[in-house]
Amino acid sequence: MSYCPQFHITPNILKLIEDIAVCRQQIIAATVQVPWIPILQREARIRTTHSSTAIEGNPLTLEEVRILEEGRPLPMVRERSRREILNQLAGLRFVEKNQNKKNITHADLSRLHQLIASRVMDQGQPGYYRNFGVRVGAYFPPAAPEVPKLMDEYLEWWHQKAMEWSPVISSAILHYRFEEIHPFADGNGRMGRALALWELYRRGFDTHHIFSVDDVYWENRSHYYAELDVVRKVGGDLTGWIEYSAEAIHVTLKRVLERVQKLSVKQSGQKILLTPKQEKILHLLQSKGGMTPNEIWKELKMTKQGAMKILKPLLISGLILRIGTRKSGKYIVG
Questions:
Q1: How confident is the model at residue 334 (pLDDT cuts 50, 70, 90)?
Q2: Distance from C-alpha of 163 to C-alpha of 167, rounded to nearest angstrom
Q3: Domains parsed from the chain with CATH numbers
Q4: What is the mean pLDDT of the chain?
Q5: How many angstroms separate the first and last alpha carbons of the chain?
Q6: Helix (H, G, I), strand (E, B) or coil at 257
Q7: Can you tell me the distance from the alpha carbon of 249 to that of 168, in angstroms, rounded to the nearest whole number?
Q8: Using an 8 Å Cβ cutoff, are 165 and 174 in contact?
Q9: CA–CA separation, 297 vs 299, rounded Å?
Q10: In the predicted model, what is the mean pLDDT of residues 194-204?
Q11: Model's pTM, two decimal places?
Q12: CA separation for the pair 175, 162 (Å, rounded)
């Protein structure tokens, strides 16, 4: 029998999907041909990696994940913690690279799991479905001999039925069902969230790769696990889980839109696009309440002439102001 998820579309799900569509269109309109998209992409990858691994107990902070993503050394950190981060980054890049793949295969799942779970598994082998029983809290996933057939049905639904629904709904279903089958000995949580993200990518929902839904899950980890558990308590009805996942996506999009709006401002009806260094200066001025010219040159590690080229558009637009005398003056946010 093919997999047939149980759920019904509530008014709340419909409203969330509508709100998500509006927010997504605002983001798309604001991110057409802009130079700072790589900033948002990198930030999303770092946040998703930190959140997805932190949910599973990885102790590294967001800043430490950022250091590893940049390829810098991070002394005094357990090798396993470091490896989990690097693995998850590799897994996300694999998903990004294969975002347009129409049919996901067992081999694709195997490769993704190898990237995510290599050298961090306590039992089982990376890339191979488990051949023994497991327990997740009070839940006992299907017996090992059932896993290959269940995963056949999982992929069949993904290929043939997922397109009938909004990606907001299909990604939630794929996320939960993977966790329910629990096909690998370890790493299923990180895999399930990566597959939900893959569905959003392949459906064209996040074409720029700038969303980090896992960030929302991580902020209330106990709620995330409780929502997964509720599905089993109500006999497999996914309605509540879909509502929860849709709300997480909505929160994510609102945060992305807020960040996009900080990265671009309007002047005389024309959008001014901020470079990474201009964004950095604005953040510094906001946090410090103002900076002297010498402090700015030093912070940017540039000559006075080079720094002025960066500051001039901000001064013209009124985003920053110069106050005080030539000797004691400083720049502040306008």
A1: low
A2: 8
A3: 11-264 (1.10.3290.10), 274-333 (1.10.10.10)
A4: 90
A5: 64
A6: helix
A7: 8
A8: no
A9: 6
A10: 97
A11: 0.80
A12: 12
